[in-house]
Structures are given as C-alpha cells and as structure tokens.
Amino acid sequence: MGEPNPVLTVVADGDVRVVTLNRPERLNGVPEELHQRLAEVWRELAADPKARAVVLTGAGRAFSAGGDFDHLRRHHTDPDLRERSIRLDRAIQTEMIRFPLPVVAAVNGPAVGLGCSLALGCDLVLMAEDAYLADPHVSVGLVAGDGGVSLWPLLTSLLRVKEYLFTGDRIPAATAVELGLANRTVPAADLQREALALAGRLAAQPAEALRATKAALAVLVEQVSRGAMEAALMAERATMTSPDHIRIIDELASGARRRSTPPSAGPAATAAGKD
Q1: Splitting the chain (275 residues) into consecutive groups of 10 residues, what average pLDDT does each group show?
Q2: φ/ψ of residue 134, rounded to 5
Q3: Beta-carbon neighbour count of residue 89 at 10 Å?
Q4: Order of strands, sheet of 16-21, starting from the edge strand that comes earlier in the sequence
Q5: What is the DSSP letter of 156?
Q6: Looking at the record, which segments are called Disordered (predicted)?
Q7: How far is CA 67 from CA 2, 41, 114, in A?
Q8: Which residue, 237, 263, 260, 235, is CA-closest to 249?
Q9: In this structure, are residues 65 and 28 in contact, taking their beta carbons and an 8 Å threshold?
Q10: Cα–Cα distance between 17 and 55 in angstroms, integer?
Q11: Least enclosed by CB within 10 Å: which of 19, 55, 99, 188?
C-alpha cells in the first residue's frame, strides 16, 4: 500500500513517467519530506526498465512555490536540518544533471525558488502562457544555492541572470522563452497534452544515442557549474541564519497568518508582489 497522500507521485503513461509535486493546497511548497523525495526519485526512475522519458509538473495551480515557510523557519535553529538541506540541494542538482532519460518540465503555474530550479534543471521546458518563473532567494536574505547561481548562466546571459537573481522579479512565460529559459509557451489547457506528446516523441528516439548525447552534455554542465554550485551552497548555508533572512521570513510568516492563508511558499510570497 502506498501513502494515502504522497507529496510526490509517479504515474506511468506508456513509456513516459509523469512526476507530480503533490501539495496543491500549499502551492507545492517544499517541506523536508518533499525535498527528500526530489533527491531520491531520479535514481528510482533511472532503475525503471520500462521508462524512456519523464514529465515533471505540479498539482493544482502552481508548479512549485519553493520552500515551505515552516521548513525555512526550522533552519534558523536546527543546524542538522541546515546540513541535510544543503546535501539534498546538492543531490537534486547532481541527480538531475546525471539522469539518463530526457525530462520535460510542464510548468503549469508559478515556479519559484527551488521550484524554478527544478523546472530549469529539466532538459526541455514548456510553460503555460500564464505561468512565470522567479528566484527571490536574495529578496528573502538567502543565496540561490539550489540552482540559480550554477544553472542560469548556462541558459541565458550573465547580465540577465544578475538582474533576475538580484531583484527576484517575475519572469513571465513569454519572456522566459525570449531569454532561453524555456522552449515555448502553451495554452494552459493544452500544457499536459503537449508535454506528454513531446516526452513521447523523445521516448521514441533511439535510446542509446539519446542517452549518450545527454551524458556528453551532462559532462559539460558539471564541468562548468560544479565550482559555482559548491560556492552557492556554502553561501546559502551561511545565510540561513543571517539576521536579514530570519527577519524577512518571520515577517512573511506573520503576514500570511494575518491573511489566514497557508504559510506554504516562503520565497513565493516575496515574488508575488514583483512583476
């Protein structure tokens, strides 16, 4: 028997596996349990002999709103959790880079913070026309150790990376395509179908050639990004207990409670006010 309400689901659609972040009531904000599953699922999928491609998406109206407020606040006083989170961030990035099968992101709504990094860590990115990306780590007093610093410069210009990481501004779907952060936009109603069709097309390609091509590209990505990844991870760990971060997260959590909304998506709350 599986979990009654798993935080992450994997469903087979022929030789495509659909991985869904499954906390729609929290905009798929990431607590420790989901953080752990995001580090584990790639090896599980790689060991599936019938899987040929993957679609990654979110349940409900968000792809993922990033770090869960409660989870972020626990880092302030729990050094063991800080170490675990850094290890998981490293594992997620490394496992996605080395994952042998093609992965299509179906960005069905906001992809913020870690959610943005998950989307951009995929091989191809389809975005609903009303979706957006944002990485407001800096805006909440953190360094973007989970992929913003190490991955974004491989996809777009360093000037634009600095603009969006420094400000935390939203990147609408059409702008993401212009910047090279997404492949194309799709009407929201068609997103799942289009993502499955694209994944199915990749699954039908000669498997050995596709895997070897992806593996060769992964060597490039790791060689270019490894130093920046480690520097950013260490800096993120240090800023988890910074006065700015503690103050901002406490203020955001208090504001969420006053509005009687679930305190679920730490960085998303900051990004929500940015265009």
Answers
A1: 82 99 97 98 98 99 94 94 98 98 99 98 99 98 97 98 98 99 99 99 99 98 96 98 96 77 46 38
A2: -165, 145
A3: 23
A4: 8-13, 16-21, 53-58, 103-107, 124-128, 184-186
A5: S
A6: 253-275
A7: 25, 18, 7
A8: 263
A9: yes
A10: 6
A11: 188
**Other beta carbons within 10 Å of 93:** 26
Token pair recorded at residue 238: 């240090």
E strand or H helix at 94: helix 79-98
Sheet holding 132-134, edge to edge: 111-112, 132-134, 171-172
Nearest to 131 by CA among 206, 69, 190, 217: 190
Which residues neighbour 98 within 8 Å (Cβ) at sequence distance 6 or greater? 42, 215, 218, 222
Sign of the torsion formed by the C-alpha atoms of 203, 38, 5 and 272: negative
- C-beta separation of 29 from 69 below 8 A: yes
CA distance 111 to 200: 24
Cα-to-chain-centroid distance, residue 191: 18
Sign of the CA dihedral with 21 first, then 22, 24, and 29 last: negative
> Among candidates 116, 41, 118, 112, which has minimal Cα distance to 272?
112
Enumerate the β-bridge partners of residue 126: 106, 184
- pLDDT of 258 reads 75
pLDDT in tens, 130-176: 999 999 999 999 999 999 999 999 999 999 999 999 999 999 999 99
Taken in order of first residue, the domains within the chain and their CATH numbers are 8-271 (3.90.226.10)
Q: 131: part of which helix (H) or strand (E)?
A: none
Residue 241 tokens, joined: 């207990």
CA distance 127 to 175: 11
